């Protein structure tokens, strides 16, 4: 069976399909099938093993320093974690992260899967855009989600204000997840628009981008909106770095950059916090949503880092800290476990300076390699589009990590695949030299 010339059931493609199925639909599927996440990751692992049996690894496609840093991170994750769950829940959490991280080594060995990745990523993410828009325009349609939410969560999805704004969560269990998926669609379609060389195709992707942006606004998620637009803005600047930008374009870019900077500073400036709380129409009494609440998280992270500076308190340790300290002081917050809404502070807290530095080495290396490969050849449209998307999503991931939980939610798995797509072109480059 083929999809537009791409073999559907190649092991690499099946692996990517299962990973994206986990990212975009695992929680919904879990309402009808137990241990969905566990089974998806087992299946993805098996199909990838099929690929490795028949193909030798190209070595080294990751330089020694980031490779050792990645091993350090995975070692900390395995031997120095604070996961409090047991049984299949623990296997699912640990297995999913470890498997995804292992993809950096295994998946880039073939390049053909990257085209399939782009098509599936667009289809899955734009599906959530359509659901968000349809639920907004025709509210009764969103009632199909209510029994799913109540059956799985026992209540309405977070962010919907008890069913008043069902479109915010769309076809997900949480409006944050919907914000991530709509942002993914925005970046995917906008990069396709930027890299396309055909006029009609550019028009099509521009329409998709606008629809994705509207859906992202409707989710009422500040971070994905601000940093998604910032990633698109940075990608535009890079794509047109050799051209002189018009005055209007410069104004738009400056406005987006200024808006992003103000949003980043808002947790530290009460006046800016009030501005953004009005912008998103959130309840300031909600401890989880108010930015000053996040500054409490960050202060706790830094305090624990000072107590355990080298290896931290253990991966996922902040979730236990939240339960025993902040949660008991905040009335009305849904859920007992939360991450710190700042990946870098949480890494300092949980993995110490060793894990923090190792993580920075890995992510900076991936970004630098992406930029290097982008500069080599812009004539191959498919290659350039894939690398430009990888660049844009890495920018989104890195800047959103200052106020989001990108390493600890679905964003990380998309980031892994985006980096693997870049690495697949590096493997191809190595093979040409060998």
Could you list some keywords that capture this structure?
434 residues, 70% helix, disordered N terminus, two-stranded antiparallel sheet
Any chance you could write out the topology, listing elements then pairs?
Blueprint: E1 2-3, E2 6-7, H1 11-30, H2 36-53, H3 64-79, H4 88-106, H5 113-137, H6 146-152, H7 175-195, H8 199-219, H9 222-239, H10 247-265, H11 270-280, H12 291-307, H13 317-329, H14 343-376, H15 381-400, H16 411-433
Antiparallel strand pairs: 1-2
Helix pairs in contact: 1-2, 1-5, 1-16, 2-4, 3-14, 4-16, 5-7, 5-8, 7-8, 7-9, 7-15, 9-10, 9-15, 12-14, 14-15, 14-16, 15-16
Percent strand: under 5%
Strand order within the widest beta sheet: 1-2
Low-confidence stretches: 1-7, 278-292, 330-335
Terminal Cα span: 33 Å
